[in-house]
Structure formats: structure tokens, C-alpha cells
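Protein modeling request. Please complete all fields; requests missing the sequence field cannot be processed.
Requester role: graduate student
Desired output: 3D structure, C-alpha cell encoding
Chains: 1
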Amino acid sequence: MFSTVNSVLEYTGFTTTISQIARAQSIIEIYVGKDEVDIESPSDLLLLDKMTSYQCIYMSENEDIVFKQVALMSQGQTDSNATFNTNMFAPFIAPLAVLASKGLTWKRSKSFRTGKIFHRGIWTDWRTL
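Delivered output (129 residues):
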């Protein structure tokens, strides 16, 4: 498990149960797209511990929102307009868990440095070709 009862209490100040942590972890695993067995980095495991703790308390306080609410961005009264949230993060994932997920190694931006394709120092004039 990503989190424990003690770490949830430490991060959030709320008490919880192992079954609530397991439910929160299953949602976090869906959100990040990886299972617990696929994660090896200690820094990722620490972030997932925090994310699971935040999600656990968020779910206990917002059970109806997480499991029953439709993901709407806006809803209109006239002509029954409804705009669905295509991100599907809110209101199902705890806001602090979304912020913490940006630090996961596979979600960070990556940049690569590339060199010259051909390591020649010869400049050619295109008009002579």
C-alpha cells in the first residue's frame, strides 16, 4: 500500500482506516496510470503516499461527489445546456493530489540535448551543388 493510517494522520490530521486507504489508492492508481508494483522510485512512492492520504480524506468528506456526481463544467437552466468536463480530474480527485502528481518522475517534462547529426566541420555552398 502507498500509505498507512499513521501517514494519513501525519499529512492530514485526520484518522482513517485501512479499507479507506485501499479505496483511495485504487483511485490514485487509475489517475496516475500505474499500479503499485510498477513503481520503483522512492521519491515517487513518497509522493504517492501523500496523494493517497489526501485522496483518502477527500473521499471520506465527499463520498457522493466522488462516486455519484457527473463531471460537469457548467450547467445551464435555459434550453438545458450542459458542458462536460473532459479532464475528468475534478471533482473526483483531491486537489492536493493533483498538485502532488506533477512531481512524479513520469509526469515531469523531459528535455533531451541533441548534437549535430553529422560531425563535419565542412561548410558547403549550396550554389555549387
